[in-house]
Amino acid sequence: MQTRGHQYEYICISIDITSTGKFRMSNNDFAHEIIKSVPTDMAGVAPPPATNHLFIVNETNQTNLKGSDTKLLHHLFAKLLFRSK
Fold this sequence. Notes:
Elements: E1 2-4, E2 7-10, E3 13-16, E4 24-26, H1 28-37, H2 67-84
Antiparallel strand pairs: 1-2, 2-3, 3-4
Helix pairs in contact: 1-2
């Protein structure tokens, strides 16, 4: 845990208790860190997956992620899942 007077950082959450009887919590810095860690070549638009064929696998034209891209995608999704709770 990092402290800066009445401001604390704990598990990616900023806690500010500078006001008497009040506190403020945020994880905006964590969100900015996630956004900065996304590679610049990961740009584009994708349609939402909410369609009737969501769970049908295209056996003839598969595109799989390779090595570090798989780990990066998993890492980013895990951070976003943590951020959303």
